[in-house]
C-alpha cells in the first residue's frame, strides 16, 4: 500500500536559461500589483523539431521495427520547461533504440516528467506495445499487454501536447497501448496502473483479451529531471512503488544479459549487465556549480537500497560542413575540399560554467537488488 505520508510537496527549481525570468516574476510583490497591469505578451506558439533515427541502427541489426523519424511539437512556453527538447532526451532515445530488444520489446514502460515525450515514443515504436507471456514457474499461462504510460504534471497544456505527439507519431493500430496521464511525483501511482489497456490489438488472438493488468512497470524513464533537487525523494518514492520487483538471476534469459557498450561510456566499470526491471536516469549538469547536488540523487538512491550504475557518458556535438579552395599547388591546380567539424553544444550556450561539463549527458541505470534464489 502506498504511504501517503511520504509524498513530497511539489516545488520546482528554475533551470539554467530561465533563472532570471523566474526570479523577477516571483519577487514582483510590490503594491503596484494592486493596480491594473498592462497586457501581458501572448504565449509564444508551439515549436517543432524532428528526431531522426540513425540509419546505421537499421543496417546493423535485423528484426528491428522500421521507422525513420519522430516529429515533436513542443509547447511555446511553460514554467516547467516543456518548451525544450533536452539533450538527455535525445541521448536516451538513442540508447533505447540501440537496446530496444532489452529495454523496449515486450516491456511495460513509464515516463515521468515527459515534456515532449521523445523517449516514450521511441519505446512504443520499438515494441513496447505487445502482449507478453509470463515466464514460468510463478504465472504460467497468464499474459499481460505491455504498455507505454507517458506522464507529466497535470496541466492541460502539457498533456494535450503529449497526446498530439502520440497521434502524429504512433501508428493507429498500436495507439491504444500508449497512454497519457497527469501525475505529481511522489503521490499514489495507482492511477498509472489503471492506464493499462487490456483490449487486444488488431491481429492478436482473441484469447489475449483474457490478460491480467500489471501492477508495476518494467522500465521507468527519468529524462533530465534530477536538477529538481527538492524532488529527489519524490521521484524515488514513485520508482519504489511503480517498478517491478527484481527477478532472480536464473529467471533472466541469456538474451537479456547484455553488457554496457564500452564505446559509449568513459567509465571504469563496464562489466555489468543491462536488464529489466530498471530505472533509466539520463541528465546533464546544466549548472556545474551544483553538480554535487545533482549526484546526490544517486546517494539517496543507494541509501534506499538501489544499485546504481553509469552506462552512458557522451558529449553533445553539432556537425557542421563547409567548403573551401586549396591553392597550395598553384592557381592551375585548384582543389575543392569539404570540411566537417564538430562543436560541443550545451543546452544554454550563454550560461556560466564549463561548457564541456554542461554539454555532457550522463546515463545511469538503477535496479533493486534481486531476491536470493532458494
Automatic annotation (TrEMBL):
| Chain segments annotated as transmembrane | none
Pfam families documented for this protein: Methyltransf_16
User: Which is one Gene Ontology cellular component term of this protein?
Assistant: cytoplasm
Give the UniProt record's GO annotations in the biological process aspect.
Answer: methylation
InterPro entries in the record: EFM7 (IPR025784), Methyltransf_16 (IPR019410), SAM-dependent_MTases_sf (IPR029063)
Provide any one GO MF term from the record: S-adenosylmethionine-dependent methyltransferase activity
Q: Give UniProt keywords alphabetically.
A: Cytoplasm, Methyltransferase, S-adenosyl-L-methionine, Transferase
Report the protein name in the record: Uncharacterized protein
Biological source species: Rhizoctonia solani
Q: What is the lineage of its organism?
A: Eukaryota, Fungi, Dikarya, Basidiomycota, Agaricomycotina
Amino acid at each position: 500500500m502506498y504511504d501517503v505520508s511520504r509524498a513530497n510537496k511539489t516545488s520546482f527549481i528554475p533551470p539554467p536559461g530561465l533563472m532570471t525570468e523566474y526570479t523577477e516574476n516571483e519577487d514582483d510583490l510590490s503594491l503596484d500589483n494592486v493596480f491594473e497591469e498592462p497586457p501581458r505578451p501572448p504565449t509564444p506558439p508551439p515549436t517543432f523539431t524532428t528526431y531522426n533515427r540513425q540509419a546505421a541502427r537499421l543496417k546493423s541489426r535485423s528484426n528491428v521495427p522500421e521507422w525513420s523519424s519522430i516529429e515533436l511539437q513542443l509547447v511555446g512556453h511553460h514554467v516547467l520547461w516543456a518548451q525544450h527538447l533536452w539533450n538527455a532526451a535525445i541521448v536516451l532515445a538513442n540508447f533505447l533504440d540501440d537496446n530496444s530488444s532489452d529495454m523496449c520489446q515486450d516491456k511495460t514502460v513509464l515516463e515521468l516528467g515527459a515534456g515532449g515525450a521523445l523517449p516514450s515514443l521511441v519505446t512504443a515504436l520499438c515494441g513496447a506495445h505487445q502482449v507478453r507471456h509470463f515466464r514460468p514457474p510463478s504465472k504460467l499461462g497468464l499474459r499481460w499487454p505491455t504498455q507505454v504510460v507517458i506522464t507529466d504534471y497535470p496541466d492541460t497544456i502539457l498533456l494535450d501536447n503529449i497526446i498530439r505527439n502520440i497521434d502524429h507519431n504512433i501508428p493507429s493500430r498500436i495507439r491504444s497501448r500508449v497512454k497519457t496521464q497527469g501525475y505529481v511525483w511522489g503521490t499514489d501511482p495507482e492511477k498509472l496502473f489503471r492506464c493499462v489497456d487490456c483490449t487486444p490489438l488488431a491481429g492478436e488472438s482473441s484469447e489475449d483479451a483474457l490478460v491480467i493488468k500489471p501492477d508495476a512497470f518494467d522500465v521507468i524513464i527519468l529524462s533530465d529531471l534530477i536538477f529538481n533537487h527538492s524532488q529527489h525523494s519524490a521521484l524515488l518514492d514513485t520508482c519504489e512503488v511503480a517498478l517491478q520487483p527484481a527477478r532472480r538471476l536464473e529467471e533472466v534469459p541469456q538474451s537479456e544479459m547484455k553488457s554496457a557498450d564500452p564505446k559509449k561510456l568513459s567509465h571504469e566499470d563496464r562489466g555489468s549487465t543491462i536488464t529489466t526491471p530498471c530505472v533509466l536516469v539520463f541528465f546533464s549538469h546544466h549548472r556545474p556549480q551544483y553538480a554535487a547536488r545533482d549526484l546526490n540523487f544517486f546517494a539517496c538512491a543507494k541509501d534506499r537500497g538501489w544499485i546504481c550504475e553509469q552506462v552512458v557518458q557522451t558529449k553533445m556535438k553539432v556537425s557542421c560542413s563547409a567548403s573551401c579552395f586549396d591553392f597550395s599547388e598553384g592557381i592551375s591546380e585548384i582543389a575543392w575540399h569539404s570540411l566537417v567539424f564538430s562543436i560541443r553544444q550545451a543546452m544554454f550556450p550563454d550560461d556560466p560554467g564549463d561548457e564541456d561539463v554542461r554539454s555532457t549527458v550522463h546515463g545511469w541505470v538503477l535496479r533493486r537488488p534481486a531476491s536470493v534464489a532458494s
